[in-house]
Structures are given as structure tokens and as C-alpha cells.
Design a protein that fits this description.
Helix content is 80%, strand content 0%. The protein is mainly alpha-helical. The chain has a single domain (3-142), classed as Up-down Bundle (Four Helix Bundle (Hemerythrin (Met), subunit A)). Helix 1 packs antiparallel against helix 3, helix 1 runs antiparallel to helix 7 and helix 3 crosses helix 5. The relative contact order is 0.16.
């Protein structure tokens, strides 16, 4: 597992989360009416989710786990290996569902849900990053 690659992706994740926090309006109605804020928030949420999947795939590639068949399965496998909790895996799988809507069916986005994710669920991404950082620390200590 290439620690530098994972750390770079985690730093990109951190930047996405900061951007979401900085640009998401305090009110969901304002988000629903502000196309620029919508673009910034949706793009950075999509990027954050993709970065989490990429990090997970990188971690799994260094293990004996089978390759995930779906993006969501990445988180199930990480939980099976004990790298993240099953509860976090479930929340991250829901995030993948949002990402798929944002990428493939942008016009169907419910901006109140996006606002809720941006204001109440960013901690899931931070928890994920912390779990992966802890894994990196444990791996480097074991060497």
C-alpha cells in the first residue's frame, strides 16, 4: 500500500470538505435557488465520495480481499476487514447512491437532501479519513 498516494487522496478529500463547508448556504432553500452553490457543493460531494472509494480500493488492493464488484461493496469489504465500522460502511454506501444520482441524473437532485448531507453528514467523511489514517499508522508501526 502506497502511503503517499493515500495521504494525497486524503488531503484532496479534506479540501473537498472545506470547500463544501465554505460554499454551502445555511438554508436549503437558498441552495435550491443558487446554481453556482449547487455546482460547487454537488461537485465536491461527488469528488469526496469518489476519493473515499479510490482510497478504499487502494487499501483493498494491498490486502487479500477480493476486488469489490461495486463502489458500495468497497466499504463492505473494508468493514469485513475491520478497517471501518459496519455502520460507517452503511453510511458511505448511501453516499455512493447520492454520487450516482449526482453524476448520472443531475436534474433529479433534491437540493434539500444535498443540503442535509453537506451540513450534517460531512463527519462521515472525516470519520472515514481518520480510520484510514489510523490504518496507515498501524501499518507503519508494524514495519
Amino acid at each position: 500500500m502506497d502511503r503517499l498516494v493515500i495521504e494525497a487522496k486524503l488531503e484532496s478529500l479534506r479540501r473537498c470538505l472545506v470547500r463544501i463547508q465554505d460554499k454551502c448556504p445555511a438554508n436549503p432553500t437558498v441552495l435550491a435557488e443558487d446554481a453556482d452553490a449547487q455546482d460547487i457543493v454537488a461537485l465536491n460531494l461527488s469528488r469526496a465520495i469518489q476519493l473515499c472509494v479510490d482510497v478504499g480500493a487502494h487499501v483493498l488492493a494491498a490486502s487479500n480481499a477480493p476486488a469489490p464488484g461495486t463502489m458500495g461493496q468497497t466499504f463492505d469489504l473494508l468493514a469485513q476487514l475491520g478497517y471501518i465500522t459496519p455502520a460507517l460502511a452503511g453510511r458511505m454506501k448511501k453516499a455512493v447512491g447520492f454520487r450516482n444520482i449526482a453524476i448520472h441524473n443531475y436534474e433529479a437532485i433534491n437540493w434539500a437532501i444535498v443540503h442535509s448531507i453537506a451540513t450534517q453528514r460531512l463527519g462521515d467523511f472525516a470519520e472515514y479519513a481518520e480510520a484510514i489514517s489510523g490504518l496507515l499508522d498501524r501499518r507503519s508501526t508494524a514495519l
